[in-house]
Amino acid sequence: MGGGNAQKAAMARERKKAAAGKTANSQLKVNEAAKNTMCSVCRQTFLMTIRQKALEEHVTNKHAGKEFKACFPTFVTSE
Ligand SMILES: [Zn+2]
């Protein structure tokens, strides 16, 4: 008596957890798609919304002496 309900509740919790996992996965995909700025030298990816300043810092820190365009040839610089 009563045990059936508890089990049902537990199953509902599991289902909710599974649904949450799916949502997290699709969010991950969105994040992957948004990472479309990639360093040509070390293949590190950056969000497309990243600021040029941050990319310049990456070049300075990781590839001292390299041109900005050598690392990010497709990035539209705002000069
Ligand atoms: Zn790099």
TrEMBL record:
PANTHER family linked: OS07G0114300 PROTEIN (PTHR33788), ZINC-BINDING PROTEIN (PTHR33788:SF1)
Signal peptide interval: none
Organism placement in taxonomy: Eukaryota, Fungi, Fungi incertae sedis, Chytridiomycota, Chytridiomycota incertae sedis
Annotated Pfam families: zf-met2
Region (Disordered): 1-26
Residues in coiled coil: none
Biased composition (Low complexity): 1-10
Record-linked Gene3D superfamilies: At2g23090-like (4.10.1050.10)
Domain named At2g23090-like zinc-binding: residues: 39-74
The protein's name in its UniProt record: At2g23090-like zinc-binding domain-containing protein
Domain of life: Eukaryota
